[in-house]
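TL;DR need structure tokens for one chain.
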Amino acid sequence: MVNSKQGWKAWLYLAPAIVLLLIFTVWPIINTVRMAFLDNYSGLRAAGGEKFAYIGFGNFAKVIEYRGFISCLKNTVLLCVWTVPISTILALLIAVALNSIKVLKKALQTIFFLPYVTNSIAIGMVFAAMFNIVGSFYGTENELIVTAGIINNVIEFFGGEHVNWINSGSSYEANMFVMIVYIVWNALPFKILVLLGGLQSINKQYYDAAKVDSAPRRRIFMRITVPLLSPMLAYVIITGFIGGFKEYTSIVGIFGEKMGPPDDAGRLNTMVGFIYDALSANNQGRASAAALILFGIILVVTMINMHVSKKRVHY
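>> reply
TL;DR here they are.
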């Protein structure tokens, strides 16, 4: 314990971090709550001396009544509902496989972790190129050559027909499929890392006892591995939902700032995109209200997950 007479030194060392937290974390949160209750608050007009009246929940009502709000909320919820379970199950299976591999184990762990340290926008641009329909060009003998992109070339190689994934005329389902694939792939490294660490901390005596009883691998996985990994599973599920409700950069990386194919801009807009749109329109009051609504949704989902985990998690 720190000597009470020397406590001022601890506060002195912590002072720079505390000041930065107060300026860049605590004050923005307080200011966001304040702006959410001001009528049509605008930072530029406020800087010019204009006064704004408190209107209670008026900004919240305007956000909910806005024509694009339901679409943004639907896209956000769909991405969470699809990507979190898929990425968690795949991460669990890959982590179990990696934990069982002896040769090149470290190298494979590094390969699976690479997407986590790569820029999301850059990865999104790569995925956009993979799913993009490139078009046609003339070859050396003046013949017309049509290329449908890497993914479509693979589909055609196995006898299928190319699909319009992200270009003009593409369907909403095709756009969502591309986003789900990308988000799942991008979410795997962190979840694999957490689950792999949990696997390596499990006492080997449980597996030795199961081998003595000649328990099949499926029963070992379901009765030993999953229950003992439940705290890590609960953690990655909760953080997965939190991250899923904040999806934005992945969609911008693939579809650009229009958040959708060229002929239907905004089709894949999310709650965070809705907030950025309000900020770009210099309507900080509406953006703050939307941010608090998103915070409330995340809080409710997190509380539900924590309530369920109390019954399912074994510590």
